[in-house]
Specification:
By secondary structure, this protein is mostly beta strands. It has no helices and 4 strands. Pfam families: zf-CDGSH.
Length: 80
């Protein structure tokens, strides 16, 4: 059976990204520092999504943890 990530929230997180900075998006839904990883996934089948911001901007990171375009929201939360 495949593990399903915890639904952290039913919608995206609005975050400010800084150009050139590396981030780790929580994929398990258990992190206390959503939408970013705090290592709560240890011992599970999940691993954070590492990404580097290409530009300084506001972004919408997935909160339902079911996006097909991780770490960014693709609207999947609307179907849950």
């Amino acid at each position: 059976m495949t593990e399903v990530p915890k639904l952290a929230q039913r919608g995206p997180y609005k975050v400010q990204l800084e150009a050139g900075k590396t981030y780790f998006w929580c994929a398990c839904g258990e992190s206390k520092t959503q939408p970013f990883c705090d290592m709560s996934h240890k011992g599970s089948a999940f691993a954070p999504k590492r990404f580097t911001a290409e530009e300084t901007r506001t972004a919408w990171l997935c909160g339902c943890k079911r996006t097909k375009s991780a770490p960014f929201c693709d609207g999947t939360h609307k179907t849950l």
